[in-house]
Amino acid sequence: MPSFFCPCPRGMEAALAEELGEIALTSTTMKVHNQVPGGVHCSGDQTDSYRINLHSRIASRVLMRMAHASYANENDIYDLVLAQQWEDWFSVDHTIRVDVTAVKSPLRSLEFTTLKIKDAICDRFRDQFDKRPSVNTREPDMRIVGFLDNRNFTVYLDTSGEALFKRGWREETGDAPLRENLAAGMLRVSGWKPGTVLFDPMCGSGTILIEAAQMVQGIPPGARRSFAFEKFHNFVAAPWQDMKNAIKPLPLPSEPTIFGSDISGDMVAMTRHNLKIAGILFDVPLKQIEAQEVKAPTEQPGILLTNPPYGERIGVRGDSTIPADDMSVAFYSALGTTLKQRFAGWTVFLFTADLTLPKLLRLKEARKTPFFNGALECRLFRFDMVAGYNRREEAKPKPE
């Protein structure tokens, strides 16, 4: 039975394992195994890879293990890759791309190792068909992924194709868009579930709102795109079509529970457009307003989850003549006051690379969870906005 590895953003491994466990409940063959830094191992039959690609919001890809062995040098890697029956999976007319990652590998050049893997695949096809597949690094039909640690090498065939965070709806983004699987992971870690009020006051192009709205509507993340496994020689269309036919839209909410705002009218318009492209059929109220001016959108407390600006993105918030640090301090100070005064009872989650954020907000975090946004180390800070915040602020002596 095939083994799979599902990579994910660093820090999201536990959330992904939980999600894969839920997906496995719909299968008689899928099993979830161990978490490792950067992903989760699982196994199942070929159709389970279809299932994960269709339903996982947090995985970055679904990689099928082709071979695993110890190695001493690049020639060992070449020999192992050459021995695999690649022709059983795809044809010489498919384009390929090879990527290699390593942790503590003694090999001096990952580029040379990547070249050896590519040569082994091409030589295998040339030996059998007197023709070799072409390389296409931008839009390959097939992606082959190698992973090296200090002693072992694993080679995978990617069943996903484009990364899974590419849901098929995004046409345009603002500055520094949040990846969809990172947004989905944050929603899970925050404890948000459909029916709970959700508010993103710095929604940008709407990634968090759209992930949540698709969950409310019952739209799987992979419902609107294609996958590499559909080009495999052994692809069986019937079970794949059955999985897609089994998607049942959930009842649309009668009252809004998902809300967003942004300082930029262009961003609000982009979010509205992206919601439509993503197939959202119910109302998600949006406002153009500065984050430090917002009010709670409902009397019922909920979850506020946002990816606030940092670095160069803070500059969109006002006077470009003010140094960025001063602008950042003023912005977060005002935001902290707004949260204390207007969001009593809410649970606030802020995802940022600025590790000094609680100090800027003058709030004590209830929890901080480390995540990586690509190579950028970030934190998901949780703040529990208890009802006493406002009174404590007012009780402080005013400066003379």
**What structural class do you assign from the helix and strand content?**
alpha/beta
What summary fits the major beta sheet? 7 strands, mixed
Question: From N to C, what is the helix and strand string?
Answer: EHEEHEHEHEEHEHHEHEEHEHEEH
As an assembly, this protein is single chain
Kindly report how far apart the N and C termini lie. 74 Å
Query: Which radius of gyration do the C-alpha atoms yield?
Result: 24 Å
Give the tally of β-strands.
14
Regions with pLDDT < 50 over 5+ consecutive residues?
311-318, 390-395
Overall mean pLDDT: 92
Coarse shape? globular
* Helicity level: 25-40%
Strand adjacency order, main sheet: 2-3-1-4-7-6-5
Beta-strand proportion: 15-25%
The number of helical segments is 11
Defining traits:
400 residues, alpha/beta, 7-stranded mixed sheet, 14 strands
